[in-house]
Amino acid sequence: MSKIKVFAPGTVANLVCGFDILGLALNEPSDIMEVSLLDEPKVIIHNRDEYNLPTDPEKNVAGVVFLSIMEKIGGNTGFEVTIEKHIKPGSGIGSSAASAAGAAVAANHLLGNIFSTDEVIQFAMNGEKLASGVKHADNIAPCILGGVSLIRSIHPLDVTSIPCPELFVTVIHPQIEVRTSDARQILRQQVQLKDAIRQWGNIAGLVAGFCKNDLDLIGRSLEDVIIEPVRSILIPGFDEVKANCKAAGALGGGISGSGPSIFMLSRDEAAAKKVEAEMKKVYDKIGIAYHTYVTTVNKNGVRIEALK
Amino acid sequence: MSKIKVFAPGTVANLVCGFDILGLALNEPSDIMEVSLLDEPKVIIHNRDEYNLPTDPEKNVAGVVFLSIMEKIGGNTGFEVTIEKHIKPGSGIGSSAASAAGAAVAANHLLGNIFSTDEVIQFAMNGEKLASGVKHADNIAPCILGGVSLIRSIHPLDVTSIPCPELFVTVIHPQIEVRTSDARQILRQQVQLKDAIRQWGNIAGLVAGFCKNDLDLIGRSLEDVIIEPVRSILIPGFDEVKANCKAAGALGGGISGSGPSIFMLSRDEAAAKKVEAEMKKVYDKIGIAYHTYVTTVNKNGVRIEALK
């Protein structure tokens, strides 16, 4: 049986004003999975990392994705996977999506690419359902497709790739816990029409900025008047990080997914590194441990290498 | 003194899901204005149409735009204008915007283009303030710039042109009155977050569709779950027109501005004409008089010709 090595990138969902509809893939960090077919209908999971995630397929994000694919194809096919996570669970940069998307793309590859990209995304969404209780695709889609993805609709699934300039991305993951389900629950279910209008002006501006390679427009559009004001209270230092990073030259940024990671987009590496220094300063002062990444937009999504 | 002839096109604001932020210019109908400078600080208005609009500059949309420009430049400059409206006031295809934008562009031209495009848009917005009580730019901007305009923000003004495919536009103006102020007042000031998310998915999809020349995506994104369900009750036959036009091949469409006109986008002229026939059928049956237009996107905005 052939074995493949899969690289599933981290992702930034929402992109500030695009709550639930936009996401972007990162070149770092990236999970690594080794996957092979089994000739019996079971899923075997090995962990090769420090996170002690469940190896029961029903309770594992990659596991439920494999199971959903096996349910679809029937017969005596199963999967064995070794997961080496580099995207820390709960970081807000698409850790569960990387496991889910990596599993779905890997399985489809091993099965001879019998499923369309939309189908692969839908299988992967079963992993998000397990992780957060909600089937969403704003990490899954960019993880699979690379670049910036627009998820116009989930039912029916309508995913589109948005052209994306060469941007640098700085991410800081403060080592605190923000549960996605909590971050969802604190949102108000009603919003002011005037705020919604401002938000959709920003979303339209952000998409236009990506398409037209207009970095200033991207920067002006990275504004969220609905979600960020509520969610950012869960992230100590958020306002200071944001203000200092923009002063240091970031185009803009905000909460990555539901947090606690914060991301900033910059037009060049020098700016992205200055931004990293500003982020570190704030959390050094507050006294919260962190990881940072200075990376670029991953244009290709999940990558597969053949193994012997 | 030199005299110029100005063609100011009709416009479709909102574009279904882009309430207050998107607009598109039409090649038909178009107002015609003849404008010249005066060497005294007054505004003289002549009407050359059937609409009997006020000629008191303080009460005339073009008049207040000229006055706002005169206030800015000071001195002994004034304007004389003859207005020949072809865009019926109250039609919902940017009649007041054409007068306001035509006046602002004409004045700037006669003054040697001393103002930036943003300034010209801002002068023209004074006309919209008079017409509807609100300074908005979703008709003004496309009227001046042509094509599709995104108004990301009014304060501060942030206007961007969006690339636009070659599209056909069918418009029907049923001869009923929907006052812009009424159409604003019936809107709910609170919206469900889930509806807002669906709306901004559609807006992002529409902008991406325009930028990527993806007509199917444009069609799928022409959906409004917030404004149209409320406003369309003011327009008899709306649901039937929309359903029949889509069945006849329209990509999609909806209320033009605050109505009562309805517009539909199509990929070719044959479809646009079928759509026109469907629109007529509905209003013939209901027994409401109408005008229709089958036209294309105006890519250039207000056009100026020199007169002797």
TrEMBL record, chains A, B:
The keyword Nucleotide-binding applies. It catalyses: L-homoserine + ATP = O-phospho-L-homoserine + ADP + H(+). Gene3D superfamilies: 3.30.230.10, GHMP kinase, C-terminal domain. The keyword Nucleus does not apply. It comes from the Bacteria. Residues 207-284 form the GHMP kinase C-terminal domain. Keywords: Amino-acid biosynthesis, ATP-binding, Cytoplasm, Kinase, Nucleotide-binding, Threonine biosynthesis, Transferase. It is an enzyme of class 2 (transferase). Its EC number is 2.7.1.39. It is found in: Cytoplasm. Residues 65-147 form the GHMP kinase N-terminal domain. InterPro entries: GHMP_kinase_C_dom (IPR013750), GHMP_kinase_C_sf (IPR036554), GHMP_kinase_N_dom (IPR006204), Homoserine_kinase (IPR000870), Ribosomal_Su5_D2-typ_SF (IPR020568), Ribsml_uS5_D2-typ_fold_subgr (IPR014721). Pathway: Amino-acid biosynthesis; L-threonine biosynthesis; L-threonine from L-aspartate: step 4/5. One of its GO terms (molecular function) is homoserine kinase activity. Catalyzes the ATP-dependent phosphorylation of L-homoserine to L-homoserine phosphate. Belongs to the GHMP kinase family. Homoserine kinase subfamily. HAMAP family: Homoser_kinase (MF_00384). This is Homoserine kinase. It comes from Terrimonas ginsenosidimutans.
